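ARCHIVE RECORD
Type: protein–small molecule complex
Small molecule: iron/sulfur cluster
Source of inputs: curated submission
Record status: active
Notes field left blank by submitter.
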Amino acid sequence: MKYLGIEPKRLRVGVFDFTSCEGCELQFANKEETLLDFLGAIDIVNFREISSDQGKDYDIAFVEGSITRSDEFARIIEIRRQAKILVALGSCACFGGVNALKNAYNLTDANREVYGTAPRETLPTRAIKEVVPVDMEIPGCPVNKDEVERIVQHLIWSIPFNFPEHPVCLECKQRFTTCVFEKGQLCLGPITRGGCTAPCPAGGTGCWGCRGEAAEPNFKEFSKIAHERGFSDLEISERMAFFGGFEGEK
Amino acid sequence: MLFKTIAKSEFKRLVEDLLKEEEVIGPKKIGEREDGKAIHQFLPVQSYGELDLEYGRTEYSAKTYFLPYKETLSKYKFSNDNWQQEIEYRLKPRFMIGLHACDINALLRLDKVLARDSYPSPYYISRRRNTFIVGIDHPPLEDCFCRAVGADVVTQGFELYLTSLGDRYFVSINSDRGFNLLKKYAIHDVTDEDTQAYLEVRREHAAGQKPLNLHDIPNLLDIEFYSDVWRQWGQKCLNCGSCAMVCPTCYCYGVSERVSMGGDEGEKSRQLYSCNLKDFACVAGNHNFRPDPATRLKYRYYHQHRGFTETFESPLCVGCNRCGRVCLAGINPPAIFNDLQAEGGA
Ligand code: SF4
Ligand code: SF4
Ligand code: SF4
Ligand code: SF4
Ligand code: SF4
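STRUCTURE (tokenized, with ligand):
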């Protein structure tokens, strides 16, 4: 229906996965309260998880996962050619995610560690934007369905979407969480992009940085704070490498 | 103002009676820090025992009960060319027990902007009117500076205010509501002995706080606008907004609209914000009035201690130092004032 006199666009959507756990694309089928309205607002023409239709007439491609095998190149290039808007969906697609952990190791060793005597073909992990241009990134491991809904609405109404620039701490405070640093734990909240409503510190594990870095993160002060509280360089850098989202610090 | 005394056991009975019918919110211990210190928050309580009236400071201020972090301002329903709006700001009366002077003063300072200035907020006013406030005196904490900003004493903004005199409370009564509630219980006229004991407690509290002279601060802030102090502290700021979230007086917010996925409903909501955040001063065209961390940090101090003072004759800040405690980078008002005063040769 019309909103403020504007007729909504019907988006023709394709959802694709590369090297990933499928957790982000499953978010498309999550949040029952609004699922029918969500699916009613868009036309899904290609989505392996929900239908065998392999339509090629999509305008918007949501791409989950990172590129780690040679056969994935041709596929992503083809999707890029077809899509008017290519959205990287989730941390793997945006910056490599957990898959990028292996980049710190010798690939043959990593292969042996995981597959033993039956090694598979594997390449260093690449984020989607390292292979083809990306128009929009939705970080998160997994992505937050509420945020996906809002982004889809913005695409429908052709309104630019502004991601939050502030760190996780703001929303952490807004849910009355006691800072986990006070309890002797490490947290990447002060340097990580907010918008997730800070579930991890509330759950007692501190933030692991799945949404990548906040705008202009203060790495210098952050590492000073973490050092003063007894965390080593190794602990800090391992935490930051976990989702690979701190590109400014590479 | 009227003064009475009430035995602590009788006050307990009063609270227990309230608990049968009403919502009672007060300082409650919710856990401990790594160093073993208690963590308190203002929370609804179910029994008198859950109230810890001897608490030091709540982690979050009482502000969130009047200006919540997120609230719905209005809801809309659309049907064809028509639409309906629904606004709800009625609130069931509730009781808040155990606010310190700084938290009550914070509400009085917020009132100036949110209840009495050009654009009073009906949402805020409704929460203020429907909250019965019982304050309580407390010995000063090692790091607060309420005296320096005139927030250690309150003479209004509460119904009842308690000062502990051993087995009884000295009660200042400031409203009909307060008196009407209290008169149902065994209260006593104040004796000379009570007055002496009360004044003694007040003297002890006043003497217990580290002296800090902030009278020159509004002026000094003008003079030291380009001071290196801002750059030095600004370098440390994480731009996280935690300070403004725990602050009892920061009231900045953003308003956003959200339309339902089906497009037939909408909601306008308000979320508290902070001038320390990079996105705070960003306007259309991606212009940012305060592009660097030092400027943002500086403006938080300018609003609290200069801008507000110019308009309303007192700083906005009530000296609770919650912002200083919560800041991981150790940025706190006394340290910044100290540096400014050193710079200004005071
Ligand atoms: S727990 Fe983490 S996110 Fe929350 S306030 Fe502390 S540092 Fe920030
Ligand atoms: S708190 Fe950190 S790790 Fe958790 S969802 Fe948010 S960004 Fe991701
Ligand atoms: S002053 Fe401290 S709490 Fe406030 S935004 Fe800066 S780092 Fe965060
Ligand atoms: S100090 Fe900053 S966040 Fe607080 S009320 Fe003033 S402008 Fe708003
Ligand atoms: S000391 Fe800090 S938290 Fe407390 S009122 Fe002043 S600015 Fe706000």
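CURATOR ANNOTATION: The CA atoms of residues 160 and 321 of chain B lie 25 Å apart.
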